[in-house]
Write a structure and sequence with these properties.
two-stranded antiparallel sheet; 4 strands
Length: 63
């Protein structure tokens, strides 16, 4: 189990309650850390950026 401390209290990191900002549009969206760690062999929690669904689709359409 992983958790953070906020104002001295433990806050558990639940599978579907982790959020990030899209690096392209700034939208807040959920991420699945377990899935990311399993799919990305060099997964790094601090340098990994996750695009929101809309920006991912736009970027895929541009290729």
């Amino acid at each position: 189990m992983f958790f953070i401390k906020h104002h001295g209290k433990r806050v558990d990191l639940a599978e579907h309650e982790v959020y990030t900002y899209c690096p392209q549009c700034g939208k807040v969206h959920t991420v699945d850390l377990i899935e990311m760690a399993q799919e990305l062999p060099d997964f790094d929690l601090f340098s990994t950026a996750v695009y929101c669904r809309e920006c991912s689709k736009k970027n895929a359409d541009c290729r």
